[in-house]
Amino acid sequence: MTERNPYVISFGKMPKQYIDRTILLDELTETLNADPIENSAFILTGIRGSGKTVTLTDLEKRMRAEDDWIIIGLKSNGEIVNDLLAELYSCAPFLTEFIDAELNLSGFGIGIKASGKPSIASADHALRVILKHLQKKKKRVLITIDEARKTEQMLTFIQSLQILIREDLPIFLVAAGLYEDIESLEDSEGLTFLTRAEKYEMKPLNLTLISKNYQNVLGVSRETAEAMAALTKGYAFAYQALGKYMWEKKEKEITEEVLALFDEVLADKVYDKIWEELTPKDRWYLGYIATKETISAAELLELTKTKHNEWSVPRKRLKEKGIINTEIKGKVSLKLPRFEHYVLTRAEEER
After folding, report:
1. pLDDT confidence of 1, banded at 50, 70, 90?
2. Which of 40, 100, 124, 322 is within CB 3.0–4.6 Å of 47 for a Cys-Cys bond?
């Protein structure tokens, strides 16, 4: 039987080979297990393919190993509070028994009709009663939401969550989303709660760990593994994609065929979507930035015949989207692997 490719490029699927973010996960789990917990909401942000889903899945696994935690994964476009009630009902026998005995949630299609108990009309009230019971049992609820974005259901849920947290009930949130989706949520009226949430950016993976992984799994030389790691720029999706095609082609060196497949999947799965969401002005500036490995702000302004105040807004957008690196003062470079090739091709097509 052919051995299965250990690298995966399907978003949301847990790959066999992956590099976890130990420091970030340690920090999150330590914070959540503190007594008292100083924050109630945490946000993982990053560009597409930066590893948010894998990190969230890792966190769920860690927290499920803790006896005093109940972990519930929900969707941002579902009936979040109702879905949460249904999950709580089925997640632990002691909660099922409590709800059946004390709450009539038949109006939500949950449980059995508690004898002599009027049907509860408010999902928020039912949730509050359940959380108070969990508090007495010294249990905490961690809600995880992947691909968090602005939906009516999400806005309603966050407003309810704010009230529950103000009442010091044991409910906590870890949401993962794209920069722009999280920003859109934060900018919503009445959701200042989210602006105070602790944020974790999905930074590039460690290149040394990527290199060692390629050596061990693919059997390539140290020099080839280091070249491959550098090619990915630590971008989680690129690490999976390059490993996948080297494995499939059974190559021990980076070939033109592997590079072509690598470029194609980056464009198809990630870069086309990023490009579509950019403004014409953002694309225009990127066309100049992509001509050099690193370009100074002064040179960029000279090439584009623009002023600093004209560049400042596109710069902020591109930085917040995780597309450009501005860590070195006065310098700009692209953060994504081989994105310069993609940008130059698209810019030429659109001229």
Report:
1. very low
2. 322
